[in-house]
Amino acid sequence: MAARIRLTKEFSFESAHALDGYDGLCREIHGHSYRLFVTVKGEPSQCESDPKCGMVMDFGDLKRIVNSEIVERLDHSFVLRNSEQNVELRELLGAKFKKVVLVDYQPTCENMLSDFAERLQRALPANVQLYSLRLHETATSYAEWFAIDN
Q1: Strand 5-17 and strand 77-81: pairing?
Q2: Is the pTM here over 0.90, yes or no?
Q3: Using an 8 Å Cβ cutoff, are 146 and 130 in contact?
Q4: What CA–CA distance (Å, rounded) separates 67 from 56?
Q5: Which of 17, 69, 136, 137 is catalytic?
Q6: Active-site position among 26, 32, 109, 144
Q7: Does 94 score more than 90 pLDDT?
Q8: How many angstroms separate the most distant Cα atoms in the chain?
Q9: Positive or negative, the Cα torsion across 10, 52, 120, 102?
Q10: Contact 124, 40 (CB under 8 A)
Q11: Active-site annotation holds for 137
Q12: 63 phi, psi to nearest 5 deg
């Protein structure tokens, strides 16, 4: 039996948001320099004719998937909850800026991780499993998602 190996790749993106109805400072528009750590697990290929022999997954393939599903979508964007309270703001921002990303949830670090997990689980190859995600919102604050908990 081949060893189960975990691979982790780090990503970063800049994004702004505002928390709809929040009772603190984060109700105001503000931004973060996000750092995302994506960990996948699987068994390295043992097939000698496979160009990926010895790999769970090519880091370049993981990079392409995460960039496509998350980073390119959110980098230098304003993330806004698609709610009735935000209709006017959505229209004003949408008329001026191209990267207003509407989501069906409060754009907290926790909810973003759940969204990221769903997107990545659909996009990863069948033989690779999403193990965990860690999203740093600031240098000292982060949230984590683990497959075992979900």
Answers
A1: parallel
A2: yes
A3: no
A4: 19
A5: 137
A6: 26
A7: no
A8: 59
A9: positive
A10: yes
A11: yes
A12: -60, -45
